[in-house]
Automatic annotation (TrEMBL):
Source species of the chain: Enorma phocaeensis
Signal as UniProt keyword: yes
Coiled coil (residue ranges): none
Domain Flavodoxin-like, residue spans: 40-193
Protein name: Flavodoxin
Cited PANTHER family: EXPORTED PROTEIN-RELATED, FLAVODOXIN-LIKE DOMAIN-CONTAINING PROTEIN
Spans annotated as Disordered: 4-31
One Pfam match: Flavodoxin_4
InterPro entries reported in the protein's UniProt record: Flavodoxin/NO_synth (IPR008254), Flavodoxin_CS (IPR001226), Flavoprotein-like_sf (IPR029039), TAT_signal (IPR006311)
Length: 193
């Protein structure tokens, strides 16, 4: 919660008389968070839009910022053909770390809670998440995975990412069907963030 998003409820202010809890602007006009603010970021990768939709529902519920992980070479429909052993996703399956447009979200150090969303590919987090997990420090952050899939559960996908990350307090995650926006929002509301 904080000044990063849409929740404008008044709240107790521990800093004394004049402050309102709203954000200030720095010289460049960017928002400056108060040190006490607990900022939340929803990071997601989505090849065909399902995870993006769920991520927006989650972020809207939490008043959180969002960051889209993007592969430098976007995945085409052909790339995503899991019935073709020679497709890109098939060939990358074992151990690829696809290059990302931007590995570290803007303002990363300022977020103490990060929700990480991805599609399930063969029971695991989509490959760009490997690059993301290995390429960032999660030290001091609470990390909550979520995913979309046709039918598979989240399985060990979050634990595998936690292993690649090497740090951070990774929580148990949740799996959603495409379009399950209300379910995702109520899950987010129940996280106690
Ligand atoms: C390469 C590939 C592998 C997939 N493997 C699984 C799977 O193992 N289990 C499953 O339920 N869905 C699987 N799916 C379906 C996706 O998880 C599902 O469509 C997801 O919602 C896509 O999210 P997106 O639109 O954000 O990319 C797979 C899709 C692709 C492209």
């Amino acid at each position: 919660a904080g000044c990063s998003g849409g929740q404008d409820e008044p709240r107790a202010d521990a800093h004394g008389s004049a402050a309102t809890g709203s954000s200030q602007m720095d010289e460049a006009g960017g928002a400056v968070r108060e040190a006490s603010d607990a900022a939340t970021l929803v990071v997601y990768f989505s090849a065909t839009g399902n995870t993006a939709g769920i991520a927006q529902a989650v972020a809207g519920q939490l008043g959180a910022d969002t960051f889209a992980i993007e592969a430098s070479v976007p995945y085409t429909d052909e790339d995503l053909n899991y019935n073709d052993d020679s497709s890109r996703t098939s060939q990358e399956r074992a151990d690829a770390r696809p290059e990302l447009v931007q590995v570290t979200p803007d303002g990363w150090d300022g977020y103490d809670t990060v929700l990480v969303g991805y599609p399930i590919w063969w029971g695991e987090a989509a490959w760009p998440l490997r690059t993301f997990a290995e390429g960032n420090s999660f030290d001091g952050k609470t990390v909550v995975p979520f995913c979309t899939s046709t039918s598979s559960g989240i399985g060990r996908s979050g634990e595998l990412l936690a292993g690649l990350a090497g740090d951070g307090e990774w929580q148990e995650g949740e799996r959603f069907s495409a379009g399950a926006f209300e379910e995702a929002a109520s899950w987010a509301a129940g996280l106690g963030l």
